[in-house]
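Run aldehyde dehydrogenase (NAD(+)) through structure prediction, thanks.
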Amino acid sequence: MTVLVRPKPLGDDKVREFRMLIDGQWVAGAEGRTIERVAPGHGVVVSRYQAATKVDAERAIAAARRAFDDGRWPRMTASERSLILLRAADMIAARADELAFLDAIESGKPISQAKGELAGAADIWRYAAALARELSGESYNTLGEGTLGVVLREAIGVVSIITPWNFPFLIVSQKLPFALAAGCTTVVKPSELTSASTLVLGEILEAAGVPAGVVNIIVGTGPEAGAPLTTHPDVDMVSFTGSTGVGRLTMANAAQTLKKVSLELGGKNPQIVFPDADLDAFVDAAVFGAYFNAGECCNAGSRLILHRDIADEVTGRIAALAAKVKVGDPLDPETQVGAIITPQHLEKIAGYVTAAAVEGAAVSHGGAALDLGMGQYMAPTILSAVRPDMAVAREEVFGPVLSVLTFETTEEAVRIANSIDYGLSAGVWSRDFDTCLSIGRSVRAGTIWMNTFMDGASELPFGGYRQSGLGRELGRHAVEDYTETKTLNMHIGQRTNWWMPR
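Sure, done. The structure for aldehyde dehydrogenase (NAD(+)) is below.
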């Protein structure tokens, strides 16, 4: 039985109007069209944006190009850029409640979760500010008396930043402050479903002292506004987070002009559990990992690989705890699982559950959409008796659906974990550290959690193997991803003429 938190109606005063930020001006789109966002938890319009076209994207790119080439941002000292980023972090913290509300109302995530994400985002901006002053090159005085080598590290240039709808403010904060710390200028395109908090971030950055043209923010669909950001010759790098399918398209588009590409894509993340694990801790982590953000999370622990000896017991315990999860109104502080992003996505999630049942999986808990009177919701779902070859065990459902598989040997567990195209993250649970370390070294994923799940910190790199993406975000090298190196090879003293005959 799912605990329901029924949404309360919103007033008409909740609709907010937004313009785009191009070259320091808040402007309408070239065609004057708008995009309306319907709140997934309440079914009413809450935001209205100017819809960008190719013309608007090209205006934003041109502004970013001018701001880079004239040096107004890259030629600042690192300490000056760092100070501006620190001011921005303080302003993010000061407006955290407003930003969290916007993310909750537009994405459907619980307000308490959104507030936690805002605290994490502010920390990332402070971390990037510190890294701005750590960026440095190299020198080599070991090349002989006549040679001195210096390696400079310079901002790569104009960066297109394209972000998804599931973590609107957090994910832009995993990209933009590091690009700015490096001295880059940017064009940011958030998802047209959840653009409000990113546009407010534009206000914050203006107030913090970021010069005009350094950060440009446009709102629009991928084909109209996003595609030009990946193909235009004046863009030097694309940083994209989203589905693997769109990531492939982004990479193909960028290849036309050989841009640098950073991709954080999908995941189908396993948790491998041995009989000696702390099962109390694991059951809690399994429910959290599967249903956090309604499972609309690339890092979701959507694939449990349980030792056969404990599979039935653990599945039952997870189902019992899942029945206590509070599902409903994103704006209620007690809610733990909010709304699904769109009706179409809810239909897709339900389709995976139906197909799995047809293939022989058992619905151990949930399995259906919930009617709460407004918006769209899905019951936390557990599928047991899942085989590794089923679509629900191999493809990213991106919803609150947990698939349970079993194993008998460590080798089998690793084989199941590595049998899919993704490699973003994984978890292993055992009191035997040798077992954890062995799994950690064998599973091909960018993050391995041991006796925990979905913990993180600004200092730890994040990214995936294989079709989970290219490159890493966060960590002490994050700023370097937005740079190029330049070698200065200097001759000292008289040069010997060895080529031309004398």
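The mean pLDDT is 96.
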